[in-house]
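Table S2 (continued). Query chain:
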Amino acid sequence: MKRLFGLLRLVAGLAILSAIIGQFVYTAGRVAINPFNFFGYFTIQSNIITMVAFLASAYFILSRKKQPTRVIYLRAVATTIIVIVGIVYNTLLAGASLAGSFDLKWSSNILHIIIPIYALVDWVLFADRKKLPFNKLWIVLIYPIVWLVVILIRGATDGWVPYPFLDPATGYGSVAAYSIAIAVFTVLFGLVVFALSRVRILKP
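Corresponding output:
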């Protein structure tokens, strides 16, 4: 059973890698691409974090080594942010223009639908992680806050933002409201992820 966990995570990690490379090559083949913009999207960065978490977990499982605690926390963070990607994209951004960054359909489906669903199912079903203490919940906020700060600085200086709702042109009140909402949503979903670490369905 545990080997199955590892193989599925290996496949998921490689799927993310192929989707990101596919979209990058597709976009670069049509327009001049700015890597800082392409890799500035929360979707791309969250998927990279998720890919690293899956591949690290797969490595330890398939090499029959114990998963370090830091890998389990990384998986918790990855699950939190990648599910947020799926929810936000499919509710707020599916019809929005994102400067051609996610117009390769199979790649977009992997990054925005398949991986978020798989990550949640993996975390709920596969009980190869310890119970995570709620006093460590702040860990899930580190990446989103750093990302938001960088994006807001870029929006104010060079005018580039990855998503319409963070555009300073819409008003800083609106941007602030969305930023707070992202932080609150991250904490709430992180709380759910930490709580689910106590669920034992498929044991290795």
